[in-house]
Amino acid sequence: MTLLPVLGFSQEKRALSIKQAIQIGLENSRALHISSMKVLAADSRSSEANAARLPSLKLHVGYARLSEIDPFAVSLPFLPSPVTISPIVLNNYATRLALQQPLFTGFKLENSAAAAEYSAEAASNDFAKDKIDLVFNIKSAYWNLYETREIKRVVDENVELMKAHLGDVENMMAQGLVTKNEMLKVQVQLSSGQLSQIDASNSVMLAMMTLNTLIGLPIDTEIDLTSAVQPQAMENLQLAEITQEAIAARADLKAAGMRIHASEASVTATKGSWYPQVSLYGNYYYSRPNPRILPTKDEFKDTWDFGVNLSFDIWNWNTTKHQTDQAEATLTQSRETLEQLKDAIILEVNQSYLMLLQSKEKVSVAEVGVQQADENYRITKNKFTSGTATNTDLLDAEVSLLQAKVNHTSSLVDFELAQARIMKAVGREK
Fold first, then answer.
1. pTM of the full predicted structure?
2. Taking a C-beta distance cutoff of 8 angstroms, is the pair 266, 141 a contact?
3. Angle at CA 86, nearest 5°, toward 82 and 92?
4. Which domains does the chain have, with CATH numbers?
């Protein structure tokens, strides 16, 4: 039984191993692409902050049309007409090339650049964390699809067992060995199994759509899983060692540390406003007319100047103090966030470690449970055939076998995910 064509799944099939699914997901992930763009933006801001420390060169070009006025002229008693001192030039062209170099800014520029660099490093660590999280999510989706398919397979096997059981009971009823009520019990159980088939098929489709969406494939792609859960010997992990490894390796913890450094640099940069600001400047002018050349001439002339500027905020209504208070508050938040994150990571590692131990034990117990349920079904089936076991006994054995197989499948997947989860908690990508 399959509902895939009914819901519009395409006939395109894609065989994927767990490694291939991770690779495709990393290549197609929009979330990871957004994270990479954040890194690019942070790197650009860092370059911008460093550029502010270097000389700047600006070109200004302008044109102005002036209204007509009488020229500046002087009348002398011994001359018949006034003498024009400065003619009027109605078309004005101005070109200025300006150079400026900060000399001292109270360490504002240096620390602003350092803060931007730390923020860029934090963004890079955020990207690394997002990548690890995505890998874990892909593994979870992949193995969830595997689990739903295995459960569906077990349910399908159970339905076939029920059908065979119903056939036996119908034959026995025809011989007068069982009552109609016994046959109805099997039919009810079979209907329940068929309903479970529908639920299992739906779970497979939902899990497949989830994996397709996560790795960037068309949502209607039918995936054939080529990897299977293989119970492997668990790596000999020591809780104290992996906790220290997580503290040293977790990308989000590194990002939090970088943000503390960025906040410290921002505090120093903000305090720079208490100091005088000194800069060197130089200008080259090429204008028509050039206002520095008298008398005015309607022609291009060049001049230049250079000097040193010093500015100092004598009173700005405590603006610098307020900005410093904000920066220091942000620094305190960053430090508290780091400590809070450390506590959360230690808790996550401990929880993941206990879940790993627990899931390993469950695999062993579930394997024994399948063996016991299978043996119980075999014995009960033989007894039922020989007439020493009731129909109800066989129904109970079939249900127990189904549940034991489902538990075994779930325990194997849980163990696989527990190993992936502890790798994520420690900060390992694989």
1. 0.87
2. no
3. 145
4. 16-65+90-426 (1.20.1600.10)
